[in-house]
Amino acid sequence: MKREELNLYFVMGSSDCNGRDPSGVLQEAINGGITLFQFREKGHDAKVGAEKKELALELKKICKRHDIRFIVNDDIDLAVEIGADGVHIGQEDTAFPVAKEKLISRMIIGVSCHTVEEAEAAVNHGADYIGVGPMYFTTTKKDIREVKGPEVVRQIRNAGMTIPIVGIGGISVENTGEILESGADGVAVISAITKAGSPFAAASEFSRCIGK
User: Fold this and answer.
1) Which of 141, 182, 191, 204 is catalytic?
2) Helices 116-125/151-158 angle, 10° precision
3) Cα angle value 188/194/198 (rounded, 5°)
4) Which value, to the nearest 10 degrees, does the dihedral of the CA atoms of residues 12, 199, 23, 30 take?
5) Within 10 Å of residue 24's Cβ, how many Cβ atoms?
6) Is 40 a known active-site residue?
């Protein structure tokens, strides 16, 4: 994948949208300048089964129309079934070798990492990019790891790893610059866009801040 695709990585599921139509939120975010999208259907009232698949297909269609790659969080079977562009897995999700074996060739695999050691393992397994965090405190994930901030990204870069990196967790326009300066290629955003009065305006502000 291209490194610049991680510049403004939007992550969202129906439960993040405060009752708004996820398709509308995604369309606004795309219009505002996001560069990659991850479908993360988790949390209270998250859709399952046929409803989850239907929503995934709907959002994938929007992404395809705008040439934005569509990544599925953790659900390997769904990703393969609907022809997603890739998957993103956490340390407690499907093991990398298992995920890779199930996926179709050329599908992207992103991995959440919290330490230099986890980043090294992801690189050795062949990850296409890593999500490093949490950068700052966030309420979006209930199983949040210890907040170590952008310093972790700096440590990974200092260890000689050149893999594309996106900073995740508690991202705002105000702290984006610090994350990029630490060596990340971009930021992954959920609530700063989904909970904004205007997802379009929020995404546009991030895009201007990143300068891409």
Assistant:
1) 141
2) 50
3) 115
4) -90
5) 12
6) yes
> Which DSSP letter does residue 162 get?
-
| Catalytic residue selected from 112, 182, 191, 204 | 112
What Rg value do the Cα atoms of the chain yield, rounded? 16
pLDDT tens-place values along the chain, 212 residues long: 899 999 999 999 999 998 999 999 999 999 999 999 999 999 888 999 999 999 999 999 999 999 999 999 999 999 999 999 999 999 988 889 889 999 988 899 999 999 999 999 999 999 999 999 999 876 655 555 577 789 999 999 999 999 999 999 999 999 999 999 999 999 999 999 999 999 999 999 999 999 85
Find the helix or strand (DSSP H, E) in which 167 lies: strand 165-168
Asked if residues 39 and 12 have their Cβ atoms less than 8 Å apart, the reply is yes
Cα distance between residue 164 and residue 87, in whole Å = 15
Residue from 40, 60, 69, 100 carrying the catalytic annotation: 40
User: Which DSSP helix (H) or strand (E) runs through 51?
Assistant: helix 49-65
